[in-house]
Design goal:
It contains eleven helices and ten strands. By secondary structure, it is an alpha/beta fold. Helix 5 runs parallel beside helix 7 and helix 8 packs parallel to helix 9. The relative contact order is 0.18. The chain binds 5'-O-[(R)-(carboxyoxy)(hydroxy)phosphoryl]adenosine (KG4) and zinc ion.
Length: 344
């Protein structure tokens, strides 16, 4: 490693994963430690914000220690600290932000606040170290569904977004309705393997005059109505067929919008990101559709799709290069919009 290398400790605590990573020059991941709270929140059928914050406090020091140890790095070796400051659960975000401020102050090293969704997009830079902007990216997570034009490092134009539920949220809600529990995405994907994706025709709403916007709440209602209809007639629902048909409807909407955007913007590179991007059936469908158009398709490996700190370290590096430095006034911004920069 050369003396010009930038070694960043990154911290992520926006939802139900406490994570820390050490990343060199944005793309070389020396460690990526994730402590998930999913089994705990599964008891309640979803993330309980109070419990999430408390668990982050309990876990964060150990997670950071592990990330440093695995990277054979001490706090004195660091060039900067990157931390997610939004969007997310305010109490959860505050744990990471406070920790990062403490380390930055104690060691007198720069602090760089990172947008969580920009982190998800940057996971693609880690997976494929030759990827450079511009490219189009579909971000599909539990809280966000965005079609984004990544014009340059840290420069984003939002082409479309969901008008109601995020794609991951739809997976979680439908999984709950058919009794699969939390988190819905992986459980639906698993169940769908036993079902027929064309058994039930679930409609996906189009948003009038906004070809790149999404709407998933109608799909969720269609699933519930279908189940009620079958049950009222004394029948029993086939969960595998519902899971497969619902998943197919989401994939059709995501792939359809993505291909339309590729055509309109003449894109040659297309990436996906976020928790839902770990869905194998979605990846295969996107891969095939991109291939037919001769467009290069990028997707992070599943561990980099769901929440992690390596992606935050990558985003922090490019923000660091762009000159972003946050002081001790850095605060959590739960509703931070994509592309928005808040100066404290
Ligand atoms: O990106 P992420 O880890 O956290 C947020 O920033 O929201 O995404 C979590 C979301 C959850 O809604 C989860 O159900 C969904 O991603 N998810 C999946 C899969 N794995 C996680 N959705 C579909 N298929 C999957 N295999
Ligand atoms: Zn996320």
């Amino acid at each position: 490693m050369s003396s010009k290398d930038v070694r960043i400790l990154a911290i992520e605590s926006s939802c139900d994963e406490t994570a820390a990573a050490v990343v060199v020059n944005g793309r070389q991941v020396l460690s990526n430690v994730i402590s998930t709270q999913i089994p705990l929140h599964t008891l309640y059928g979803g993330v309980v914000p109070e419990i999430a914050s408390r668990k982050h406090i309990e876990r964060i020091n150990q997670v950071i220690r592990e990330a440093l140890e695995q990277a054979d790095t001490t706090l004195d070796d660091l060039d900067a600290i990157g931390v997610t400051y939004g969007p997310g659960l305010v109490g959860a975000l505050l744990v990471g932000v406070s920790e990062a401020k403490a380390i930055s102050f104690a060691k007198d090293i720069p602090l760089v606040g990172v947008h969580h969704i920009e982190g998800h997009i940057c996971a693609n830079y880690i997976e494929d170290t030759s990827l450079e902007p511009p490219f189009l990216c579909l971000v599909v997570s539990g809280g966000h569904t965005h079609l984004v034009n990544v014009k340059d490092y840290g420069v984003y134009e939002i082409l479309g977004r969901t008008r109601d539920d995020a794609a991951g949220e739809a997976f979680d809600k439908v999984a709950r309705a058919i009794g699969l529990g939390y988190p819905g995405g992986p459980k639906i994907e698993q169940k769908a393997k036993e079902g027929n994706p064309h058994a039930i025709s679930f409609p996906v709403a189009k948003v009038a005059d906004s070809p790149f916007d999404f709407s998933f709440s109608g799909l969720k209602s269609a699933v519930l109505n279908y189940m009620n209809g079958v049950q009222m007639k004394g029948g029993s629902v086939n969960e595998a067929d519902i899971a497969a048909s619902f998943q197919q409807a989401v994939i059709d909407a995501l792939v359809g919008h993505a291909m339309h955007a590729i055509d309109v913007y003449g894109a040659t590179k297309f990436a996906i990101a976020g928790g839902v991007a770990s869905n194998g059936t979605l990846r295969a469908a996107m891969q095939e559709a991109c291939q037919q158009k001769g467009v290069a398709f990028y997707h992070p490996s599943p561990i980099l799709c769901t929440d992690n700190a390596a992606m935050i370290g990558c985003a922090a590096y490019y923000e660091y290069l762009r000159g972003r430095r946050d002081g001790m006034a850095l605060n959590a911004v739960p509703n931070l919009a994509l592309g928005q920069r808040v100066d404290f």
